[in-house]
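Before drawing any conclusions, I looked closely at one protein's amino acid sequence and its backbone structure tokens, quoted below without any editing.
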Amino acid sequence: MAASAFLCYVGAFSFEFREELLREVWETDLRRRDVPMSQPFRLESLLTNDVEISQWTSEGLPPDELSVQNGILTTQGSRFPLCIDPQQQALNWITKREEKNNLKVCTFNDNDFLKQLELAIKYGFPFLFKDVDEYIDPVIDNVLERNIKGSGQRAFIVLGDKEVDYDPNFRLYLDTKLANPKYSPGVFGKSMVINYTVTLMGLENQLLNVIVKFERPELEEQREKLIQETFQNKQKLKDLEDTLLRELANSTGNMLDNTELISTLEDTKTKAAEVTEKLKLSVKTGIDIERARDGYRKAANRGAVLFFVLSDMAVINPMYQYSLMAFLEVFNISLKRSLPDSLLNKRLRNIIDTLTQNIYAYACTGLFEIHKLLFSFQMTIKILQAKNDLRLEDLDFFVKGNISLEKSPRKKPHAWIPDQGWEDLIKFTEVCPDGEIFRAWLRDRVISLRNGVIWTTLNRKIYLVVSMTS
């Protein structure tokens, strides 16, 4: 039931909301109703398997949980997928996945897209509409709805004013670059809308691949080779298991007298043991590779944080749009321009500093002057948050001050202190890590004024407490 609901309803939502629906709402409700569920409940084990996930990874789909969920929705959904794909992850994966199946790629602006779609439907080729906007041509409604009609042994679909023979191998994909498209309920009913918007962790892993490929190409090559070998070995093990079950199911009479069956079983058992050992070795090798790759994760994390700072600027002005491809170009340039060093920590410091400077310069070329300071502030805040050097309470106070309607019972000591400034000062003593010291200062020290600003000295450090200028 949970898996069915997942396939039907959650595609358009973010990863966080999907998890909330699945874990906190549906799973909790099913357990409250004593519906039997596996423990722990994992969608991946029910709707796909390790072999298929390994195949998706080898085709370019990131291995994070959100991407695996999107892969499930794309391949297992009952409706054709419409991918919300601002970073073009889905486009790259689908293109590589279906390339061997003679994929046809068009846009609604192409003059011959109907002809190409007709051929794909007739001969069972996969078809991809890229760069879809909020308007979807109603001429493909019958295709989206799978409105297949039959006449005798013939299955056909009406496309425009033509009846086109329908091949069951036909697959349709739609992909949009829009980050937040506004589709009508009819579009959601006809297609499986899937949110491929990249997450911070997913982008961090992608950037880690880029860094390791640049810094340690042999390590990245080994990792990619390991992914391919793991997929092949898992596929081989699955085939051996299927062969074993098929032979047992088709055997007749006494199995002990069937020498051919016994020989086949022994051969299958030997090969399965060999493949299992290879998989165990692959796991161990994979752990060693990931341990070496994790040394570069700090730089990848900084890159992911900076990309999301760029993306958030679209909230300020919709004109500020930055593609992942353009960001990756700046990222690669930063890797090349950063100073080399034999020590990993110094090399990472050089990469991080160069990347931060280049991203700032790249962004400022397209920002209005009035927004550059805001962008700098946003960069600083996000970097501090990523390093766990900024408390949310401090940021909240810095932005809003004391917004409580309840006034402090303590009266301000001087008339020149504005009422709101005094309330902010009281609030500051509550949120500041050195709050006890400041409270003692407010109680025991004489407040002095210099140029409209309160200053004090604590532990031989000068603190700017609060501005009194309006």
